[in-house]
Each structure stands twice: as structure tokens, then as C-alpha cells.
Write a structure and sequence with these properties.
The chain is built from 10 helices and no strands. The chain is mainly alpha-helical.
């Protein structure tokens, strides 16, 4: 049994509508800038910080994405006059054991399951669609200079885990538990989580990861353990990518 959510399906619809409105507004600004022949690169050229532009612009994109995803929730909190925001988004306190031990054990089990599955399928020469696709490369995307590494780490290990857990577990999963059994809410919210990343080649591993994170949330009645899991997982991926690039 999950904590009662103040959200309903109408709120989910309002969230989607507000998100679409944000996307259309930003698209309009980009198109207006294009018509006026104004680009961010031209602005940075005038400021003399062209070399910093790539990392800063990508990080700003990640930050803007987080703001866009969370702003409709903030608006809903205001509209519905939600009194306890922490409870409404499952940002409730948990014991140190749930906060540290649960995520670590869950992460180890997740890595074991995925590793065994990959070993069995690849050793047999089986490529499963939606499983063995290309992985995300944060460092290669941002750049290898010190500033870019810091910004890539901040985006992938700081912004992404908190934003995604609040949205997919604290809001979407929490809402779905009002209308269906936990296992079905876990499956649907995990599928949405995987689809959100727009990586068809690794859809099912992402869905499995989402299911683990959601189960962790359901078990502890809080998204904090899932946030810790997410941070550790992304940190390991960051270190692995860095080691591969430096070798």
C-alpha cells in the first residue's frame, strides 16, 4: 500500500498539457531567434567565451529540461493548495538503513541480473531488440576538459536523478497507485520512464531499471532511496565512461 496521493488522472492530463505548452513556447522562441538571425553562438562570440560554450550550453539544456519537467508539478501544487508537498511527492524521511542499504543491495542485484542476461544472450550470439543498443555517453557529449567534466557530472549525477525520481516515482507512479494495483502501476510508470529517454535500443534495460527504482519507492514509501540508487548508478556509469576514454 502506497501513501495516499493528492493527484488524480485529471492532474496527469493537466501536467501533460502544461508540458506541451512549455515545449511550444520554447520552440517559438527558437524559431523567432532563427528568423532574426540570432543564435547563442553569436552571443558567446561577442563575449569571448566561445571555448566554454559547448559544455555550458549543454548543461543549460539539461537544467532547462529539469525546470520544464518540474514546473507543471509546482503549478499543480499551487492550484490544488497541497499542504504537505513532501508527502505528496513521496519525499518523506526514511531510516538510514532504507536510505543506504536498500539502494546498494538493489543496485547489486540489478547489475547481476543484467550482466547474466547479457552474458547468456551475447555468448549465444543473440541480439535482442531494445536491449543491446548504444549506451549514453555523457563525457563524449560534453567534452573532456575539466569544466565539461564537472558540468557533465553535475547534470548526470545531480540534476537527472532528482528530477526523474520526483516526476516518475513521486508524481506519476504515486498517482497511478490510486487507480490500479502496485505491480501494474510499477509496469506502466517504468515503461513511461524508459520511453522518456528516447533510446529504443536500450528500452528494456531502462524499463527494468525503472521497475527496480519504482519497487524501491513502493517498498520504502519514499523516493529518497531511489534517488540514492540513481545517483550511485549514474556515478558508476560516469566513472566507467571516463576510464574507457582515458585508457
Amino acid at each position: 500500500m502506497i501513501l495516499n496521493a493528492p493527484w488524480n488522472l485529471k492532474d496527469l492530463g493537466i501536467y501533460v498539457g502544461l508540458l506541451i505548452a512549455e515545449i511550444l513556447a520554447i520552440t517559438g522562441v527558437i524559431l523567432l531567434g532563427s528568423l532574426l538571425n540570432i543564435s547563442p553562438v553569436q552571443v558567446t562570440d561577442m563575449l569571448g567565451i566561445t571555448q566554454l560554450w559547448r559544455g555550458l550550453s549543454i548543461f543549460f539544456g539539461y537544467f532547462l529540461q529539469s525546470v520544464m519537467l518540474l514546473t507543471p508539478i509546482v503549478i499543480l501544487v499551487y492550484i490544488k493548495k497541497v499542504r504537505n508537498v513532501g508527502e505528496s511527492l513521496l519525499l518523506r524521511k526514511v531510516s538510514w538503513y532504507e536510505l543506504i542499504v536498500y539502494p546498494i543491495v538493489a543496485l547489486i542485484l540489478t547489475m547481476v541480473v543484467l550482466s547474466v542476461f547479457n552474458f547468456i544472450t551475447l555468448s549465444q550470439g543473440i541480439e535482442v531488440p531494445g536491449v543491446h543498443g548504444e549506451k549514453t555517453e555523457m563525457i563524449a557529449y560534453f567534452g573532456r576538459d575539466i569544466l565539461s567534466l564537472v558540468l557533465a557530472f553535475a547534470a548526470g549525477v545531480g540534476l537527472a536523478p532528482f528530477t526523474e525520481e520526483v516526476l516518475f516515482r513521486g508524481f506519476i507512479f504515486h498517482t497511478l497507485t490510486r487507480y490500479m494495483k502496485p505491480w501494474l502501476a510499477i509496469a506502466i510508470s517504468s515503461a513511461i520512464f524508459a520511453a522518456f529517454h528516447l533510446k529504443a535500443g536500450v528500452f528494456f534495460p531502462l524499463m527494468f531499471l525503472g521497475a527496480v527504482l519504482t519497487t524501491l519507492t513502493w517498498r520504502t514509501q519514499s523516493i529518497w532511496p531511489a534517488i540514492v540508487f540513481h545517483i550511485i548508478n549514474n556515478s558508476l556509469a560516469f566513472v566507467a565512461e571516463y576510464s574507457q576514454l582515458m585508457s
